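User: C-alpha cells in, sequence out, please.
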C-alpha cells in the first residue's frame, strides 16, 4: 500500500507543522523543501510506502543528495525518548529551518506534547528575534518545561547578545547539534548559566538520539573497527528510490537493524560516546594518517576560533596537508604548535586562510565542499 507524498515549502513553519500533524495521523506523507536552495536533481515520487510519514532531503556537508524516509513510529519514538531524557515534555522555541531534521524534531515534539512552538522568523538568525520569541514562550501544566534547539553558530550569536543570553538561561535545556560544539563555546554557555545539551544524530536517526555522549531510551551504540553504528526504534526506513544505498547504510546484526553513520568514534572510560569525525575525512600526509576532525577540534580551542574549519589541500611534497579556513586572524606558528603538541607533526596545518565569511549551509554547518574549493581551487574535485 502507498500514500501520497506532498511537497511543501518550508518558508512557512506553521504550514509545515500542520502538514506534519496530518502525516503523523496517517494523512499524506510530507516532504518539506527549501524554497531558496536548489532541489535534488531528480523529482520526488508522487507516492511512498504506507509506513513513510516524512521525507527529508539532505545533501550533508559532503557527499551526494538523498531523500531519507521516516515512519511516524520512528519519529514519535524519538520524541518520547528525548522527552524522557530531558525530564519531561515542554514547549519549544523553533529557531531552525523546517526542511532539516533538527527543525522538524522541534515540530514533532511539539505535536507529541500537544503544544505549539514559538517561531523565530525564518531566514538569517538574529539574536534579538530569538530573545523576542523567548519572551512569548508561556508554559502550562501539560508541558511545564522550556526547550530550544540551536546549531553552534546560533548559540555563539546568542551568547554575544546580552538580552538573548539572559533569555537563554530561562530554558530547561538548550539542545546544540548539527556539528561538533567547540569546547570553548560550551564553556561560555555554561558560565553564562545556559543549560546546554550537546546532541548527536542524523536524519537517518530521526535527529539527535545521543545526548551529552549518552544514547537515550533504547538506542544502542556499536563500534565496528572504530566505525560508529546506531540501532533503535528511531531509525529511518531507508532512502527513497535508492535500494543500493539503503542496503549499504542499514545492516542487520545481533538481531538488530543498525545505521552505519560513517563517523569514527570511541567510548571514554566512563562509557560516554566521543565522535571523532568522518571516516572519509582522513588525509595521508607524508605517509601518516591525519583525521581532519581532530585537527579542527584542536584549532577551535584557540581564542576566537570557534567557527574555524579545517580542510585539505593537495601537496606535491606531502600528498595532502591540513589547511585552516577562518574569519579571524590566526598566527600560523601558534596554531601549528598547538595542534602538533597533541596530534603530531603531520597534523600541523600548512596554511591559514582568512576569509570574509566561511561558506555555510542552511543548517548552520560549514559547507565543506565550498571551503575545500577556497583552500585548494586547483585540487578540489568538481561539485
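Assistant: Sequence out:
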Amino acid at each position: 500500500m502507498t500514500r501520497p507524498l506532498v511537497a511543501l515549502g518550508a518558508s512557512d513553519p506553521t504550514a509545515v507543522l500542520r502538514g506534519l500533524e496530518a502525516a503523523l495521523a496517517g494523512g499524506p506523507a510530507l516532504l518539506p523543501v527549501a524554497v531558496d536552495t536548489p532541489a535534488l536533481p531528480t523529482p520526488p515520487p508522487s507516492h511512498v510506502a504506507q509506513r513513510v510519514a516524512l521525507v527529508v532531503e539532505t545533501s550533508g556537508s559532503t557527499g551526494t543528495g538523498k531523500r531519507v524516509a521516516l515512519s511516524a513510529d520512528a519519529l514519535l519514538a524519538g520524541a518520547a525518548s528525548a522527552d524522557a531524557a530531558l525530564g519531561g515534555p515542554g514547549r519549544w522555541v523553533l529557531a531552525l529551518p523546517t526542511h532539516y531534521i533538527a527543525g522538524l524534531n522541534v515540530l514533532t515534539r511539539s505535536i507529541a506534547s500537544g503544544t505549539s512552538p514559538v517561531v523565530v522568523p525564518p531566514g538569517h538568525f538574529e539574536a534579538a528575534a530569538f530573545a523576542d520569541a523567548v519572551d512569548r514562550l508561556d508554559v502550562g501544566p501539560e508541558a511545564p518545561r522550556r526547550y530550544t534547539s540551536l546549531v553552534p553558530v546560533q548559540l555563539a550569536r546568542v551568547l554575544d547578545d546580552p538580552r538573548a543570553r539572559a533569555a537563554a538561561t530561562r530554558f530547561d535545556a538548550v539542545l546544540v547539534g548539527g556539528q561538533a560544539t567547540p569546547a570553548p563555546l560550551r564553556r561560555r554557555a555554561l558560565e553564562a548559566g545556559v543549560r546546554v545539551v550537546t546532541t548527536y544524530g542524523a536524519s537517518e536517526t530521526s535527529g539527535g538520539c545521543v545526548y551529552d555522549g549518552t544514547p537515550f531510551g533504547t538506542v544502542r551504540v556499536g563500534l565496528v573497527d572504530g566505525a560508529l553504528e546506531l540501532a533503535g526504534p528511531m531509525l529511518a526506513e531507508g532512502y527513497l528510490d535508492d535500494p543500493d544505498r539503503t542496503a549499504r547504510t542499514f545492516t542487520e546484526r545481533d538481531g538488530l537493524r543498525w545505521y552505519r553513520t560513517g563517523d569514527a568514534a570511541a567510548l571514554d572510560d566512563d562509557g560516554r560516546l566521543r565522535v571523532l569525525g568522518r571516516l572519509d575525512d582522513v588525509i595521508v600526509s607524508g605517509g601518516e594518517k591525519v583525521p581532519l576532525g581532530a585537527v579542527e577540534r584542536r584549532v577551535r580551542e584557540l581564542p576566537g576560533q570557534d567557527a574555524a574549519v579545517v580542510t585539505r589541500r593537495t601537496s606535491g611534497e606531502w600528498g595532502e596537508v591540513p589547511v585552516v579556513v577562518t574569519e579571524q586572524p590566526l598566527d600560523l606558528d601558534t596554531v601549528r604548535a598547538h595542534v602538533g603538541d597533541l596530534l603530531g607533526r603531520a597534523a600541523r596545518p600548512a596554511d591559514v586562510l582568512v576569509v570574509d565569511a566561511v561558506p555555510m549551509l542552511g543548517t548552520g554547518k560549514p559547507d565543506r565542499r565550498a571551503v575545500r574549493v577556497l583552500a585548494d581551487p586547483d585540487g578540489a574535485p568538481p561539485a
